[in-house]
UniProtKB/TrEMBL annotation:
Species lineage: Bacteria, Pseudomonadati, Bacteroidota, Flavobacteriia, Flavobacteriales
Protein name: ABC transporter related protein
PROSITE patterns on file: ABC_TM1F, ABC_TRANSPORTER_1, ABC_TRANSPORTER_2
Residue ranges crossing the lipid bilayer per the database entry: 38-61, 81-99, 167-197
Keyword list, A-Z: ATP-binding, Cell membrane, Membrane, Nucleotide-binding, Transmembrane, Transmembrane helix, Transport
Cellular compartment(s): Cell membrane
Domain ABC transmembrane type-1 positions: 44-329
InterPro entries noted in UniProt: AAA+_ATPase, ABC1_TM_dom, ABC1_TM_sf, ABC_transporter-like_ATP-bd, ABC_transporter-like_CS, P-loop_NTPase, Type_1_exporter
Coiled-coil annotated residue ranges, if any: none
Annotated Gene Ontology cellular component terms: plasma membrane
Disulfide bond listed as a keyword: no
Length: 610
């Protein structure tokens, strides 16, 4: 099997690009503040208070040492001031601890609330987008990057706030040091330059690596899923695929590992080298301070204050620059997240649209409709002309890939036709608001979703606003024969479905289908579409389901796709598709007389049943 091409070398993102990503930070903070304003301001206040404590503590420490030296030399000891100073330092230490805890707590709470908020936003945004966007692999990459960084964004928040806090710490320490000895600033600059160079050198690289690997990471996730999940387990075991999938996974992971190891080694190597330079500068300053103290220019207290301040300044400044890189890197992910949230859906929402008719009068008409899937040159359907009359039951038949489901997607406006148009009561459907228009339809696709939620939720999903309306859910279940499934479940309507969760029960294919059909009945839709809804039902259940369907949807418009001709013949009219074109359309009798593909396939199936 051909392996996907892997972009081994990341496109390096430079310092300027990283810097530009910071423009998203204000929007980011606006979002965080909106999530919980009180907590946000408490956090900021704690950080401001916490920021001025280090210089205060160092200063009180200096006063204590000077006082101790003074009292050691004094003949009559007066320790009152000393105790006051010690008490003050103790108070500051306790306050510092309390503030730090307050910051961590509010960080964690804000972070949790914010990540819930972003996840909700991502889910909502995904539902707003059109199917062509959802089926696009670029979209998936964007979604993946937006989703993946939920926890990263929480780290970003506390990093930026800590950065602000550290600016205050640095400024206050600088004031202290400059007051004593302005020359020390030069050494400070020397000690910090190596860190800056190091950060510029590697800024953006790890983001670039991660970004250029989005596709592959998705593939890794998929391979992990394919190799180790209940859904694939049967075939993986039976075909002995485990080693193959594991090897493919390892192969791809190893490539990423090699890249990331190279980067980590470079970072560590250069980091240690630059750090030695920084440490040398610090000890230079230390020696300088010691000389001045020995010469009697500085007191012992000054020595501790200055060396302490200098050391803290250096680590804070280093932290500032390292964190700056981390911030710009995470801010690049922020860009992905906001770009995702800002993705436009194809239909301009603000556009003035016609109100939808409450009841369909004439029906739908496909006029010379042709369609190519996005990024594809192939006409999947072309020159399609037919009517779906109000109240009619129309069946689509045709071989696999003939274009049946595609026509449904066009009718539902998941895609717009590439040529021709679809009319509703003589008016192009494009004139109506897409979301409102889609409310007309109750649909069960062949790949309908098996929600691993409760049975009640699975049915109510058809009209979720009616989840509390038990009589309506009961009626839907009766119509679809799902009531038989419910009566067998120990938990009744509250039965958890699927294997993922504790006490969850998995259903057979046919049972799932009955639940899915109930979902379509749940919605009092004008048009019902059943895309091979009964393929998993046994022959008796299928006939029963269809007879019921016809009876229950009397007066309603419906489209049915089925490969079983015994089912299809119940429809008012049948449309036969071949290679994306309408081959014939008419009642069962008409098509039998026509003696073309329909008659041939019908007789073939009928012979099979004899
Ligand atoms: N999202 C897509 N992007 C590109 N091509 C697609 C997409 N979905 C379907 N196709 C192609 O369009 C053609 C028609 O597919 P469609 O699903 O409409 O067939 P169908 O008649 O419903 O088939 P079946 O009976 O197997 O369900 C096929 O060749 C398929 O490969």
């Amino acid at each position: 099997m051909p392996r996907p091409k892997t972009s081994l070398e990341p496109n390096k993102i430079n310092f300027r690009e990283s810097f530009a990503s910071l423009k998203f930070v204000p929007r980011f903070f606006k979002e965080i503040r909106k999530v919980n304003p009180l907590l946000f301001y408490v956090n900021v206040l704690c950080r401001i208070l916490n920021a001025i404590l280090p210089v205060l503590m160092l200063w009180v420490g200096k006063l204590i040492i000077d006082e101790v030296v003074l009292q050691m030399a004094a003949d009559v000891k007066d320790l009152d001031l000393l105790w006051i100073l010690v008490a003050a330092e103790f108070g500051l230490a306790v306050l510092s601890d309390l503030l730090s805890r307050g910051i961590s707590l509010s960080d964690a709470l804000l972070g949790d609330q914010y990540s819930i908020d972003t996840s909700v936003k991502i889910i909502k945004k995904t539902s707003e987008l059109n199917l062509d966007q959802l089926e696009d692999s670029e979209f998936y990459d964007k979604l993946e990057r937006a989703r993946q960084q939920t926890t990263g964004r929480v780290g970003l928040m506390s990093n930026i706030l800590t950065q602000g806090e550290d600016v205050i710490v640095i400024l206050s320490l600088l004031v202290g040091v400059v007051t004593f000895e302005p020359w020390l600033i030069i050494l400070l600059v020397v000690s910090i330059i190596p860190t800056i160079i190091n950060e510029i050198k590697f800024s953006g690289t790890s983001y670039s690596l991660a970004r250029s690997w989005t596709q592959e990471r998705r593939e890794l996730d998929y391979l992990r899923y394919a190799g180790a999940s209940d859904v694939t387990a049967k075939e993986v075991k039976l075909f002995g695929l485990s080693d193959y999938l594991a090897a493919r996974f390892k192969d791809l992971s190893d490539k990423y590992y090699i890249q990331s190891k190279k980067l980590a080694k470079q970072r560590a190597g250069w980091g240690s080298f630059f750090n030695v330079i920084g440490t040398t500068a610090y000890y230079g300053a230390y020696v300088f301070i010691i000389f001045r103290t020995v010469a009697g220019i500085f007191s012992l207290g000054d020595l501790t204050f200055l060396s302490g301040s200098f050391n803290r300044l250096r680590t804070k400044l280093q932290g500032f620059f390292t964190r700056f890189t981390a911030i710009t890197e995470s801010a690049l992910y922020l860009q992905d997240y906001f770009e995702f949230l800002d993705m436009k859906y194809s239909e301009a929402v603000s556009e003035e649209k016609l109100p939808l008719p409450r009841k369909i009068q004439k029906g739908f008409e496909f006029k010379n409709v042709g369609f190519k899937y996005p990024k594809s040159e192939k006409w999947v359907v072309r020159h399609i002309n037919f009517e779906l009359k109000a109240g009619e039951k129309l069946a689509f038949v045709g071989e696999n890939g003939a274009g049946k489901t595609t026509l449904i997607k066009l009718l539902l406006r998941f895609y717009e036709p590439s040529e021709g148009e679809i009319l509703l009561d003589g008016i192009p459907v494009k004139e109506y608001n897409q979301t409102q228009y889609q409310q007309y339809f109750g649909v069960i696709f062949q790949d309908f979703v098996k929600f691993e939620l409760t049975l009640r939720e699975n049915i109510a999903m058809g009209e979720i606003s009616q989840i509390e309306n038990q009589p309506r859910i009961n009626r839907a279940a009766e119509k679809s024969l799902a009531d038989e499934v419910i009566s067998e479940m120990p938990g009744g309507y509250d039965q958890q479905l699927g294997k993922r969760f504790k006490q969850g029960k998995d259903l057979s294919g046919g049972q799932w289908q009955k639940i899915a059909i109930a979902r379509a009945y749940m919605k009092d839709a004008e048009v019902l579409i059943l895309d091979e809804p009964t393929s998993a039902l046994d022959a008796r259940a299928e006939t029963e389901a269809f007879n019921r369907f016809i009876k229950l949807t009397e007066g309603k418009t419906a489209v049915i796709i089925s490969h079983r001709f015994s089912t299809v013949r119940i429809a008012d009219r049948i449309m036969v598709l071949k290679d994306g074109a309408v081959l014939e359309i008419g009642t069962h009798e008409e098509l039998m007389q026509n003696d073309k593909l329909y008659a041939e396939l019908f007789n073939l199936q009928a012979a099979g049943y004899q």
